[in-house]
Amino acid sequence: MTLDKSAALLARAQQIIPGGVNSPVRAFRSVGGTPPFIERGDGCRLYDVDGNAYIDYICSWGPLILGHRFPPVLEAIREVLEVGTSFGAPTEREIELAEEIRAAAPSCEMVRLVNSGTEATMSALRVARGFTGRELTIKFEGCYHGHVDSLLVKAGSGMATLGIADTAGVPPGFANTTLALPYNSVEALEAAFRERGDQIAAVILEPVVGNMGCVIPTREFLTALRLLTEKHGAVLIFDEVMTGFRLALGGAQELFNIRPDMTTFGKVIGGGLPIGAYGGRADIMSRVAPVGNVYQAGTLSGNPLAVSAGLAMVRHLKAHPEIYNQLDEAAARICAAGGGVEGVTINRVGSMFTYFFHPGPVNSWDDAKRCDTEGFKAFHRHLLERGIYFPPSQYEAAFLSAAHDEEAVDTTASAIAEFFAA
Ligand code: HOZ
How confident is the model at residue 166, as a pLDDT? Predict the structure, then answer.
């Protein structure tokens, strides 16, 4: 496999774009080698500028649950091109997407569309603070909620990948409004509420974590989250940017049968175009301007391109619920390929999974940070050389799409088995 053209593009990109990439993990810093520069995607495959093809397990970091260039999504985009791409004025489609979100996740009695997952979490947090009149937020170590200043404390994803514990540029005053607790620790949660319950505006979490690799919440943890937030009047925010419409139509809240007060979305609801959304209880969402006094706005919010692409994807998923079983079975086969290997723990929920180079269990950042990242690096390289593109970080979940056919899954499972047999 040669990556000469990609290497040349990387060198050129580094002259103008920090690290040559527009989002840090893409630079391959933790796995080494040259990141392939992508020319096009189709179905479950990516094709780079050097003529290499890859079975794609990033799926644009989650959104492409139906694969690249899914025809109904392309058709929806084509239709929008005929009428205009942005109006900065309301359209009927926005109502339709908000209604689809509410139908899938009934905890979202009202919904506001924004442009990214980061905007969704930033806005939800502001609304929760406005609603409660409190400042403090609980988040969990290793969870990542976009690059919102106060939520970058002990964050996963690129920060975990690059080993940046606390980013520069966030004033201590902002960081001090965040309490970072260990994921899955009921004890730590109880202690925090015992000590500061009347100051806590919100508890935000990834209800299945993707950003320290895939980490699964315990039933006890979820129950404690719901009970304690209710008891102390704090807003429980599920960050379903990754899990929404992916683990089930109604996301993790449907899967675990928990009703959060607010939810954030992104990725799948945009069909691969930039979008985000936040929603929740009507009494909380009624605090958002112009009805209430919590301000949040956006020129491109609800733009017809992203909304139409998202609607096409969400409606297809709704019409074909069997997709979720299909995804589950395919992901199970890929995970079975490395099952029982000493020193490796595989966490999976539906079509999100991670091969952790750690004897396990991996239930928190404290566990995940002890991974053998050199082992992961060799695994990643082995797969890439065989045309299989896993996320270039131990601390990102892999995603599967409905376009991953038998052949792609078999090829992947064989390559994984080959790595562990060597
Ligand atoms: N931090 C994103 C996923 N957890 C990665 C975004 C990207 O590189 O596109």
Answer: 83
Helix axes 304-319, 92-104, angle to 10 degrees: 40
pTM over 0.90, yes/no:
yes
Residue 165 has a pLDDT of 81
Map out the domains of the chain as residue ranges: 4-69+321-421, 71-319
Cβ of residue 26 lying under 6 Å from some atom of ligand 1: yes
pLDDT under 70 in the chain at which residues? none
Count of C-beta atoms within a 10 Å radius of residue 420: 17
Ligand 1 center from residue 393 Cα (angstroms): 10
Ligand 1 atom showing the smallest separation from residue 158 Cα: 1
Asked if CATH classification 2.60.120.10 holds for the domain at 71-319, the reply, yes or no, is: no
d(CA 127, CA 130): 5
Q: Whose CA is nearest to atom 9 of ligand 1?
A: 23
Atom 4 (ligand 1) nearest CA: 157
Angle between helices 71-81 and 304-319 (to 10 degrees): 150
Cα 341 from chain centre = 27
Nearest to 137 by CA among 121, 149, 125: 125
Q: Who contacts 290 (Cβ-Cβ below 8 Å, separation ≥6)? A: none
Which residue among 22, 59, 61, 209 is best mutated to probe the pocket of ligand 1, counting the most ligand atoms within 8 A of its Cβ?
61
CB of 166 closer than 8 Å to CB of 154? yes
Is the minimum distance from the CB of 211 to ligand 1 under 6 angstroms? yes
32/298 Cα distance (integer angstroms) = 38
> Are 62 and 55 in contact, with CB atoms under 8 Å apart?
no
Supply the CATH classification number for the domain 4-69+321-421.
3.90.1150.10
* 131: Cα within 13 Å, side-chain hemisphere: 25
Q: What is the pLDDT of residues 160-181, one digit of tens each?
A: 999 888 899 999 999 999 999 9
